[in-house]
Specification:
Elements: E1 2-9, H1 14-27, E2 31-37, E3 46-54, E4 69-72, E5 91-95, H2 100-107, E6 115-119, H3 121-129, H4 135-146, H5 151-161, H6 164-180, E7 182-183
Parallel strand pairs: 1-4, 4-5, 5-6
Antiparallel strand pairs: 1-3, 2-3, 6-7
Helix pairs in contact: 1-4, 1-5, 3-6, 4-6, 5-6
């Protein structure tokens, strides 16, 4: 089973990203779970969402405490606490506008401790969507970094979730961040 913990802020589409990933994995015949954790938060408040993907039925029904992958949609949330519980050799995939070495310092980790990937998702989203909503951008980065699902599966679920120009633009966002994600 692969467990993903998503970090973002209310209004950024954190749970939508988790759901899109789950639906893409479902299309590929996997068992999935996707759920948020939030209470009375408001727009802009930090929130988390979780995705589980497995070849076998998933019998866990709790939050993800030791994720294989952490995805951060908002760079203002980055810091040592964001990787709490991350499994050894886990993946960190962040919306970060600067160099990877600087991200590693911000996270307070050693080089090589985790597989670290970054992309300037906000810049891509603003350019293509005309809004700083980074959920599909980070989905593209996640697929590039991990290969967790096929890119075509992501495109299919985006077309199902959105329509017309909105779907086309979100697919373009995924393509651009997939190509521009750096790390390893």
């Amino acid at each position: 089973m692969i467990e993903v913990r998503w970090h973002g802020r209310g209004g950024q589409g954190v749970w939508t990203a988790s759901n899109l990933l789950a639906m893409a994995a479902l299309k590929e015949g996997k068992y999935v779970q996707s759920f948020p954790t939030f209470g009375p938060e408001r727009m802009g408040a930090p929130i988390m969402a979780f995705t589980r993907i497995s070849d076998e039925p998933i019998e866990l029904h709790c939050s993800v405490y030791e994720p294989d992958i952490v995805v951060v949609l908002d760079p203002t949330l980055l810091g040592p606490g964001i990787i709490e519980g991350l499994k050894p050799n886990g993946f960190i995939i962040a919306n970060f506008p600067r160099e990877l070495d600087e991200l590693i310092k911000v996270l307070g980790i050693s080089k090589g401790q985790y597989k670290v990937y970054a992309v300037n998702a906000t810049e891509v989203a603003v350019k293509i969507l005309k809004r700083g909503i980074t959920n599909t951008a980070m989905l593209g980065a996640l697929v590039k970094a991990t290969g967790i699902v096929k890119l075509e599966s992501v495109f299919d679920v985006i077309k199902e979730r959105f329509s017309g120009v909105i779907a086309e633009r979100n697919i373009e966002v995924v393509k651009v961040t997939y190509e521009s994600t750096k790390g390893g």
